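discrete fold record:
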Amino acid sequence: MTVRDGGYANAQYGLLTAIAAEAGLSLSTVSKVVHRRPDVGARTRERVEELLTRHGYVRPGERRSAAPSQIIAVFRDLAGPYTLEVVRGIVNAADERGVDVVTGTTGHRSIAQWLAECAALDATGLIIVISMLSEDDQRRIVEQRLPVVLVDPLSAPRHGIPSIGVTNRSGAEDAVRHLLGLGHVRIGMVAGRSHSLAGAARLHGYRAALEEAGIAYDPALVRSTDFDFEEALRACRQLLRGDDPPTAVFAASDAQALGVLEAARQHGLGVPDDLAVMSFDDTLVAAMSCPPLSAVRQPFEELGREATRVLVDLAAGRPPASPRIELATELVLRTSTSVPRVTAG
């Protein structure tokens, strides 16, 4: 520790010497500005302060506050394409602000432990992505005024905890309207779990688009799963084994859509000729699937950036104008959707 501190002091002394030379002043004058002595002219003080800031000089006793700030981003897991897209936005936005990002999951540490870790690391705050917060966690955040921002929370947070998501319902409506416009009337859905805010909103959008078209909602055409490949594969197999299977399936995530594609392959169905498939997310895997997926695109980069911006502002005492921020989705059409095949009557 002594060696490190001595090296730091020598580096700071050398920096002051360089600043003095650049300003054309004596080291003594620069030192007076550093120690905030009054016997220095205003213009000279302003010039030295500008150089101190530009060169990143840290006054004695202020080293702790000058250390690079950091934020913590916590995910349910780091396995899916959604996670990788969002974390990229957070890291890029934080890097532009000179902020470090610590990432972790709730697999081995609870939200309560991450809140404690945030304090232990003296982090700026915490971004929590797709997680369920207990009442105790939410109470602690609100009562202690901890800078926390939620991205796609599984349940509606308490007032005072900002959250960021996308226009899930209207995005789902756009997806189903597209399938209806192609001529599909028997449209299935591999939906998210009902306890998920995003999953519930996408199911509501699916139902609203059908109702708008005068088509009765058929619960036999809907299966709810996690946003997961394997569960979606099993669910879609059930849909395709029905007496009157769908000619199109809307999946609530890219991972689920990939499960739908595999179920179609196993049933000997061609996509999109025998089964049109529409997804929600448009992560990198959507364009690389076979065939490439038509999808509702979430602005992942912007989600991460907005979460970082709101967190930094919140930590600075500037809460967002609205506790809920929703970013617009966009319909991206590729080759997994087409008109339904005409069969002989």
